[in-house]
């Protein structure tokens, strides 16, 4: 038996000898290859000692040969339904279609029947992005499949490797698998729950698989009205894992080959975002910073020394113009909700957009830290002549099929196309019910619903701080924004995450303030 055969067998039985350490909670990349070499040598020597002892004990006429691992696919592709949690906006829908066709091409190359591929946005099932509303449909539509695989439009799927993984599990059992994430500490995006490392949830951009048996069990729970009925949907993966655990007591199985970053042995991994062109420049966008007098001294200087130090079209909207922010536009302020304040910003910004012929409006809080360059790159994939709203999607009572709705959360930053801004400020279209109504829920939720504009969710926008997200989640993308200055140094956050990519921008010479 050769070392090559030994390594091959180890790989077959799940022992990884590359740069991925499966002993860690998040299977993070191992940098010290020396340790792996020592471990492999020890395993090899131990194995050979046992192997030679066993061989010596055999009769002389018994031949020994290395174990040959079959490469045949035992799970047929047509026994799998792949559900792409897609969005209907042109760029996103096109990406989902591309993934679907790529899956079909791979199945053709294997000379196998095609797997079933579902694009969720084409089903017109309300709240399909939260997964639970899809379960009953999937159970009824695909009664003969063995596995369901859920992923995003930017998930790369290597079909043969995925089928190989699924084929090693029994679809007759309650099982689901993915790249397991966990909270390092209680976090605001999970309502400060105390699960921590004991509770695992899948990295949804890597995809996760579920046996038909488990999906059917969950569907029955939904039919019986036993789904979770939380007010807010924030992190779909975490909330769905909570539903699975509470309903069936089934925990997520960690599979490292449903990868966070690309590697040769990955069955899936998230594709990093690439801009569609280079046509969007800082001259195409207006930045509106929402602030108030009590934060002029401690927040605005951070903004001006980080992302706002560049030559941008930027306006500060506050309840007062004092010596610390003389250029502020005056808008009404409230201690909560801020609907009247944000609506006033939209009204003033609409005039600026028209006069200066800007294509986009970005509304951010005075404690939002983000990359201007990455935001501009994202906008190259969307048509500013259409009614477009982009940000991080939350949901309010999505289990309520009649009154629940989704919205773009304000702290992560919200980007609106100029035509949409002009439409929103038309009389009676988006008027606030009260000055203290939550601005993002009304203006970027209910109002968009009334206008039949579905907000575009980008996972690169973040409502919380970097520490609130698992390392693996952040490693799989290039974030656009973070929010809040609570327990972090915001200047360090900008320096660590965004400064390098933004340095191509020209610096601001003098304060640029766009007059009405």
Automatic annotation (TrEMBL):
GO cellular component, one term: endomembrane system
Localization per Swiss-Prot or TrEMBL: Endomembrane system; Membrane
Signal peptide residues on this chain, from the entry's feature table: none
Membrane topology listed for this record: Single-pass membrane protein; Single-pass type II membrane protein
Cited Pfam families: Fringe (PF02434)
Start and end residues of each Fringe-like glycosyltransferase domain: 280-487
Broad class of where this protein is predominantly found: membrane
Coiled coil segments of this chain: none
Protein keywords: Glycosyltransferase, Membrane, Signal-anchor, Transferase, Transmembrane, Transmembrane helix
Keyword Transmembrane: yes
Annotated GO MF terms: glycosyltransferase activity
InterPro entries: Fringe-like_glycosylTrfase
Family, per entry: Belongs to the glycosyltransferase 31 family.
Protein name, as recorded: Beta-1,3-glucosyltransferase
Organism: Cyphomyrmex costatus
